[in-house]
Amino acid sequence: MSGRVFLLGDGISTDAIMPGRYNVTTDPDGLRRACLIEARPDFVEEVQPGDVIVAGRNFGCGSSREHAPLAIKQNGVAAVIAAGFARIFYRNAVNIGLPVIRCAEAHLVLRDGDRVSVDTLSGEITGPSGTLYGEAPSGVALRIIEAGSLVGLIRQGGWAAVEEVRRVS
Amino acid sequence: MGTLTEELFSRRLGRAVRAGDTVIADVDVAAAHDVTGPLAIEAFRSLELPLWDPDRIVFNFDHVMPANTVAAAELHRVIREFCVEHAITNLFAEGICHQVMIDRGLARPGGVVVGADSHTTTYGGLGCFATGLGSTDIGVVFATGKTWFRIPETIRIDVRGALPHGVYAKDLALHVIRNLGADGADYCAVEWTGEAVRAMSVADRLTLCNLSTDFGAKTGLVEPDETTMRHAGGDAVDLHPIRPEYARTLVVDADALRPQVAVHPSIDNVHDIEDVAGTPLDEVFIGSCTNGRLSDLALAAAILEGRSVHPRTRTVVVPASRGVYLEALAAGYIETFAHAGALVLNPGCGPCLGRQHGVVGPGERVLSTSNRNYPGRMGSPDAQIFLASPAVAAASAVTGSITDPATLGER
Q1: Alpha carbon distance B195, B132 (integer Å)
Q2: pTM of the model
Q3: Which residues of chain A are within 8 Å of residue B132 when distances are taken between CB atoms?
Q4: Residue B246 clears pLDDT 60, i.e. is over it
Q5: Structural domains in chain B?
Q6: Per the CB < 8 Å rule, is A15 touching B377?
Q7: What is the distance between the alpha carbons of residues B151 and A148, in angstroms, rounded to a whole number?
């Protein structure tokens, strides 16, 4: 799939993605509208299904609030590509089926507004100046993504499905 | 054999595990709060499985308690109804979830606790492997009692010597973050060790492990010892690193430390207090899961006793829990704060996350004893947040600007 790049910097916290004043709800559309509301006020207005977020180090640091990846997913974002992810955000994104790709140089090479195509399983990112090879989730995280979500995986086979991945990895 | 984390999981699983292994493990307790709880309940319901164990599931109302909007009240209602439906009695509205878990003995040395809040790492101060997860992970634990972990590599922080007078666990943690960076311990466990840590109270160890998540750690841990067991009660827990291999060791000379201040806009933008002393403040916040315990309030009260807060600096004090509040009342600290002109609010998260009382406006500067200074954390994204110890916070409240308590004049 291909889409437009929304370029963000280092250390984008879950407070920036979903400020604490806006996440007192589980309503998906309410969360969607508040996504990056202060850090990138044009985001909700301009984002189209298939667009991607490209960021620097420590994306999603801070609060464990799952409202942050949920809000990004609700906006139709095809993948979040970052030089590094905070641990809980990464796990949350995988659990709800929001594709995440680690790529050290994407935020240095790509520019805001670039068109890119992204293979969320291989981690390949193709933009105006060539192809970058990012790292897509592997191991248990990949198994969760294949099932669509953690809830989907547990519904399919319980922890036995995860245990199987553990044994072979 | 291994680090504290490897030892703890090897015992739990009955086989040797090493960093890098992926395991599925039973947890002792799973917790959520008023903001993350409803999403965890949604995940649990979508599994269509029976509840694991009502006695091991804990909900705390702390982020917006009492509710200040209809939306917040609705989140509380969802959780209350869920608890009634499943006979969950561990539903508390008496302070910050992490302090309540400690006060009520729900996090134990040698245990494994997961919570839908990043500062779940706090319980590592008692030698409990504790980590924050998202709501979906916690909802799955509600059904299965298990979750998966990648056993993390460990960074050891070896704190030699003794902290000087006027330098606290908060300063030590900020100094470490200054050295390692805001993602310096990403995906790792952090073991806090050395003379200065062994000499610390449990309260101060909780502060170190609380802040471990703020430089990326999956968990922070202090080896349980006599101090731990005096606090936690019960039989001694025999948990030590055995011929551990650390990914990295950072040696800190405690004697050389000065009061530290994390300056807007990130927690690793840390300076010695001299660099920022004199910065005028609109608000001071003393509280949070980092520094809202009795010893923190004692430090603040000792400075505020017989003094008044500066008229331009609204000063908000929030005891971490009802237990802390009652002890602070008995010790006279609350009266001291009231006489000094500070606003004492009910136990809970308070102004830390900008969702209820104490929200800061554009262009304002606030000094907080909390753990996060991201733009927008406490209100307007155009406000500036400084993080420091309760002693610096109290001294700064008196002068209305960032102040080293050592420079505070006579009463």
Answers
A1: 28
A2: 0.97
A3: 64, 88
A4: yes
A5: 4-252 (3.30.499.10), 260-406 (3.30.499.10)
A6: yes
A7: 24
